[in-house]
Design brief:
Helix content: under 10%
Number of helices: 0
Strand content: 35-45%
Largest sheet: 5 strands, antiparallel
Distance between the termini: 28 Å
Radius of gyration: 10 Å
């Protein structure tokens, strides 16, 4: 399985291009391919990083 988000770390601000209505989110954790993001307008979401690429908005926490 390929990791589409190899450099994501907790604290980074990201967006999910397929769901712009969720707003920006902060990466909470990354364990293997499972990335937990707290989105402004969708709350906490667990994303499969082998299936979905997140867009980095701000790499500095």
């Amino acid at each position: 399985m390929n990791d589409l988000n190899p450099i994501l770390e907790p604290g980074m601000i990201v967006a999910l291009p397929a769901r712009p209505d969720w707003g920006h989110g902060q990466v909470q954790s990354r364990i293997g391919h499972r990335i937990t993001v707290n989105f402004r307008d969708a709350g906490k979401v667990v994303i499969d990083g082998s299936q979905v690429a997140l867009e980095i908005i701000n790499a500095r926490p």
